Structure formats: C-alpha cells, structure tokens
Amino acid sequence: MKVPIYGQKTKYSYADYLKWNDDERWELIDGVPYNMAPAPSSKHQEILGNIFGIFYNYLNGKPCRAYLAPFEVRLSEHDDDHETFHVVQPDLSIVCDRKKIDERGCKGAPDLIVEVLSPGISAKRDKIYKFDLYEKFKVQEYWIADPHNENIEVYTLQDDHFGEREVYTLGDQFHVSIFDDCEIDVNHIFKEPF
Fold first, then answer.
1. Is 17 a member of any domain?
2. Is the peptide bond before 70 cis (omega within 30 degrees of 0)?
C-alpha cells in the first residue's frame, strides 16, 4: 500500500509507516512523511563510501558499529510504535549501544550521524528539520557532508545542544569527538575514486 496523501491524517506514526509500500523509502519527522530521493548520485555514493570505509576500518574490533542507509532510526520518548513519530534513514549511523539495535534498525539516538547532501529539498531537511531532531534526541555528533563545496559541517552535542558549527575543507584534519584517537583527513573523504 502506498502512503496516503498527506492531509488525510494530521500525523502519521511508525505503526502507519510499517504499512506503506516497501518499494519506496520514507522518513517521518514530527509525523510528516517525506519521500526519500529516488537514487543518490555517484558522487554522493563515493563520498559516503569513503566515510564508511574510514569508520569501518577504525571500528574493527571495537564495540561500535557503522550502518549505511537504508537503515531505520526510530526516535521517540515512547516504546509504542503508535506513539513514535520520527523515523529517519541517515546516510550513515554509528551506534555504540548494542541494546539499541533490533531487526528493524536502531531504536534511539545513534552516537554519530552523517548526512551527505543531495540537491534540492533534502538539503533543507538535513540542515533544519533533521538538525533539530538530532539535537532533541541527543545525537552526540552530527556531520553534514557537502559534495558541491567539498566540506563537512560538524556539530557536537554540548549541554544538550549542538555547539558552534565547525567546517572542515580540503587540506583539513579533525578529531571525531566521540573517539579520542580517530582523526579524519578531509582529503580522504572527497578524493576521486579513479
């Protein structure tokens, strides 16, 4: 079954979401359904692959795990699917608490989330709606990778709010706040594959 046209119901829950067509990818933010972009660009996938590769190698033998989209992250104050109104599919989620992982994805906030911008409305969703959502549910670190400008915006949770934005560009290196000994070279993220 396809998602009903928004407006027939004022707010959709995760229980509603589970009934929708599996051929399409959706996110829910405050009960509002958002259709995911049909297919990411090759550049988007290369950047995401580079970031995943860095974390995959770093996390080898450690308790945290990296998960690529499609991977559902359910954010709610309640255990009931009918009371869960936020379901997102970040490009990359790093989860250190294994109790949050179940057969459907992650229930609760990942420790680190990466979104790679795509042209159009998804950029607004990543920079405003998801930013607010990730801050509210206390994601420890949030990255927004911009393929066009070849930079990474990093937000770190401080006193329950994201601190000042840090922007890293080609030639920069920075430390991941949740891992003391993990240093990121921005050139490795935006490098050409061939």
1. no
2. yes
In which band, very low, low, confident or very high, does the pLDDT at 8 lie, cut at 50, 70 and 90?
A: low
Q: Radius of gyration over alpha carbons of the chain, in Å?
A: 17
Provide the domain count of the chain.
1
Output the domain CATH number for residue 173. 3.90.1570.10
Phi, psi angle pair for 89, to nearest 5°: -125, 80
Domain coverage including residue 180: 40-189
149 is written with which tokens? Answer: 């400008």
Lowest mean pLDDT among 32-36, 55-59, 139-143, 147-151: 32-36
The answer to the question of residue 61 being in a domain is: yes
Kind plus residue range of the DSSP H or E element containing 161: strand 161-162
Query: 133, 177, 172: which is closest to 149 by C-alpha?
Result: 172
Residue 25 burial (10 A CB sphere; 0-12, 13-18, 19+): middle
pLDDT at 12 over 90: yes
- Residues whose CB falls within 8 Å of the CB of residue 82, separated by 6 or more in sequence, listed in order: 13, 14, 15
pLDDT in tens, 21-52: 777 789 999 999 988 867 788 899 999 999 99
- The H or E element that residue 132 is part of is helix 130-136
In a domain, 138, yes or no: yes
Using CA atoms, how far apart are residues 11 and 32, in angstroms rounded to an integer?
A: 6
